[in-house]
Design goal:
Elements: H1 22-27, H2 33-40, H3 42-50, E1 61-64, E2 72-75, E3 78-79, H4 81-94, E4 98-103, E5 109-113, H5 114-130, E6 138-142, H6 147-158, E7 162-165, H7 172-182, E8 186-190, E9 192-195, E10 198-201, H8 203-210, E11 218-222, E12 236-238, H9 239-243, E13 255-256, E14 260-266, E15 274-279, H10 281-294, E16 303-306, H11 313-325, E17 329-333, H12 344-352, E18 356-359, H13 361-370, H14 373-376, E19 385-389, H15 395-404, E20 412-415, E21 449-452, E22 464-469, E23 479-480, H16 484-492, E24 501-509, E25 515-520, E26 524-527, E27 530-533, H17 534-542, E28 547-557, E29 561-570, H18 579-592, E30 601-604, H19 618-625, H20 641-650
Parallel strand pairs: 4-17, 6-7, 6-8, 8-11, 11-12, 16-17, 16-18, 18-19, 19-20, 29-30
Antiparallel strand pairs: 1-2, 3-13, 4-5, 9-10, 14-15, 15-23, 21-22, 22-24, 24-25, 26-27, 28-29
Bound molecules: ligand 6R9.
Length: 653
């Protein structure tokens, strides 16, 4: 671009705010003075947060940033992450507290106490050691949401081995490239997994993936679905045969605060996935601190449920490490939200009296699509805090969530963070913040974020640009596995002069200085020189009563640079997807945002292409919008969706 790029247009006019109730504030973990306390002395603030954990040896220095951008937090400190998540709760007399209410998709269930979890993790740690694993080795885990997946992660952590969880739905090729990249010695999997009421193979995929994989010595198989699986003699071991007979005693060794904890692969905009590396002390500190304050979690009282998959960072930080470090009782659900019926989540909330529920906007919009009458059938009165993560939440979905799930009173925390940040960075604090539908609002106490322009200069109120993190934080990634150059280039080169971490997200400040996330920078369109966020147009579309879900892309346009192309799913009762309806939607967007945002084209579809973590793959929709052959669909949750969209368009539906 030659001319100065115009600031992101502040197009949305959402102005509702929801102050916390006095009753909630009076009991909240967080208080407003946290911000000032952290600003006054960030390192002292984080040192205080680290006291949440048990340290075998205390640190001598809070932060060493001399080797930036590779941080060292709690330098010289030693701890065992698994001890912190499990044993110490038993030691403090809470062994009988349920850690996990596990709910299997077919209807089976298990309640696991902290004492049982300690025994299970100890046996698994002994088993892994019996195979010769040593601190620093890598174990890849591809498993559905069964308790053994969590046990396996904690067993690795206990012996200083890095785990790398690969999402259960990933293809053999995807698993293989991750196994090779980290040279994993062991792979842990299950025979099969339940998906939408059916048992599907898992071990078979692993076998295909590992053909000729030289680093892998053993494959450990948990029996879940009971189906026949081929066993490779000398390589494959049944979990129950290997683990069940082990001693339940295992002495946890303390590791350095900077000892690597895990690698989690995340897709970049191009090229091979990046192995994001996290370490122990700082990561666990931020995980525990954020889980405690952002969800207002009370140990021994709340029942918490994060609906993410452990194959995603949200599952790592907000199912495994944060909650368990905080002695949480939590629900872990194995299956899909509409198996066997669309009220499954609310049935579980009612049954277990879930009080804190953390999910993704894509699921909230799906619930909207299924209809208000479904949650209405259940008693959701136990819910007191609701969370959202993964993408910007449209104000419409936010309000729906509040009204239909949160009884118009539970605070909603819209939490912005990334695989790379390790834990929540920008979010309201329940009991403190007057929340605004659609805005993640403010960096947490101890965290610093800014919205800057092309030159790295902070924009003013009402201005837009790029989100950066201008100060190091405890849970930050320590690198990309085996590729330091890529680490520096991807995150630290864009604003190298200022030393800022570039998050890759567009953002703006509103008139109050609150942060609104506008989607990935590559999701920002440029129409006639105006930058318009796909999110804002999507929000406008979803605010129309006939629209359930919308995805917007910028397609190359000879006159305007990019033209806005929208894909919409209509609500169940809005059957008319004809010309008049489309015209009305175009006018609606023009009315909501301004004529510049009027979509060039609106296509009514039945489904949208989404990744397993629920992100819409706009790249594929752009291919459709620009009449190109549709690109790589291997990371889609359901790869047939693109065929459905393309054929629907050809037949003029
Ligand atoms: C935790 C997680 C990170 C990207 C991030 C941003 C988007 C996540 C968001 C959000 C707006 C939120 N994102 N939470 N955008 N509001 N509350 O999702 O990690 O899978 O690495 O994705 O997701 O674009 O950059 P990850």
């Amino acid at each position: 671009m030659t001319e100065q790029s115009p600031a992101l247009d502040n197009l949305l006019t959402e102005s509702r705010t929801f102050p916390p109730s006095e009753a909630f504030s009076a009991q909240a973990n967080a208080t407003a003075d946290f911000y000032a306390e952290a600003d006054a002395d960030r390192e002292a603030f984080w040192a205080k947060q680290a006291e949440r954990l048990h340290w075998e040896t205390k640190w001598s220095q809070v932060l060493d940033w001399t080797n930036a951008p590779v941080a060292k937090w709690f330098v010289g400190g030693k701890l065992n992450v698994a001890y912190n998540c499990v044993d110490r709760h038993v030691d403090s007399g809470h062994g009988d507290q349920v850690a996990i209410h596990w709910v299997g998709e077919p209807g089976d269930s298990r309640d696991i106490t902290y004492a049982q979890l300690k025994d299970d993790v100890s046996r698994a740690a002994n088993a892994l050691e019996s195979l010769g694993l040593e601190a620093g080795d890598r174990v890849a885990i591809q498993m559905p949401m069964v308790p053994e997946a969590i046990v396996a992660m904690l067993a690795c952590a206990r012996i200083g081995v890095l785990h790398s969880v690969v999402f259960g739905g990933f293809s053999p090729t995807a698993l293989r490239s991750r196994v090779d990249d980290q040279a994993a010695r062991i792979v842990i999997t299950t025979d099969g997994q339940y998906r939408r009421g059916k048992a599907a193979p898992m071990k078979a995929n692993v076998d295909e993936a590992l053909e000729g994989a030289e680093s892998v010595e053993k494959v450990i198989v948990v029996r879940r679905t009971g189906e026949e699986v081929p066993i490779t003699e000398g390589r494959d071991l049944w979990w129950h045969e290997l683990v069940d007979g082990q001693s339940a005693e295992h002495a946890p060794q303390a590791f350095d605060s900077e000892h690597p904890l895990f690698i989690l692969y995340t897709s970049g905009t191009t090229g091979k996935p990046k192995g994001i590396l996290h370490t122990s002390g700082g990561y666990l500190t931020q995980a525990a601190y954020t889980h405690h304050n952002v969800f207002d979690h009370k140990a021994g009282e709340d029942v918490y449920w994060c609906t993410a998959d452990i194959g995603w960072i949200t599952g790592h930080t907000y199912i495994v490490y944060g909650p368990l470090a905080n002695r949480t009782t939590q629900v872990v659900y194995e299956g899909t939200p509409n198996t066997p019926h669309e009220g499954r989540h609310w049935e579980i909330v009612q049954q277990h009296k879930v009080s804190i529920y953390y999910t993704a906007p894509t699921l909230i919009r799906t619930f909207m699509k299924w209809g208000n009458e479904i949650p209405q059938k259940y008693d959701l009165s136990s819910l007191r805090v609701l969370g959202s993560v993964g993408e910007p939440i449209n104000p419409e979905a936010w309000i729906w969530y509040r009204e239909n799930i949160g009884a118009n009173s539970a605070p909603i925390v819209d939490t912005w963070w990334q695989t790379e940040t390790g834990a929540i960075m920008i979010s309201p604090l329940p009991g403190v913040t007057a929340t605004k539908p659609g805005s993640a609002q403010k960096a947490l106490p101890g965290i610093s974020a800014k919205v800057v322009d092309d030159q790295g200069v902070e924009v003013g109120k009402g201005g837009g640009g790029y989100l950066v993190l201008d100060k190091p934080w405890p849970g930050m990634l320590r690198g990309i596995w085996g590729d330091e150059q890529r680490f520096r280039e991807t995150y630290w080169s864009r604003f190298a002069d200022q030393g800022y971490y570039f998050a890759g997200d567009g953002a703006k400040y509103d008139a109050d200085g609150d942060v609104w996330l506008l989607g990935r920078v590559d999701d920002v369109m440029n129409v006639s020189g105006h930058r318009i966020s796909t999110t804002e147009v999507e929000s406008a579309l979803v605010s129309h009563p006939t629209v359930a879900e919308a995805a917007v892309v910028g397609a190359t346009d000879p006159t305007t640079g990019q033209g806005i192309v929208a894909f919409v799913i209509l609500r169940g009762n809005a059957v008319d997807g004809g010309d008049a309806a489309v015209q009305e939607l175009r006018n609606h967007v023009a009315k909501e945002i301004g004529p510049i945002a009027k979509p060039r084209q609106i296509l009514v579809v039945q489904e949208l292409p989404k990744t397993r973590s629920g992100k819409i793959m706009r790249r594929l929709l752009r291919d459709v919008a620009e009449n190109r052959q549709v690109g790589d669909v291997t990371t889609l949750a359901d790869s047939s969706v693109m065929d459905l969209i393309s054929s629907g368009l050809k037949s003029g539906k």
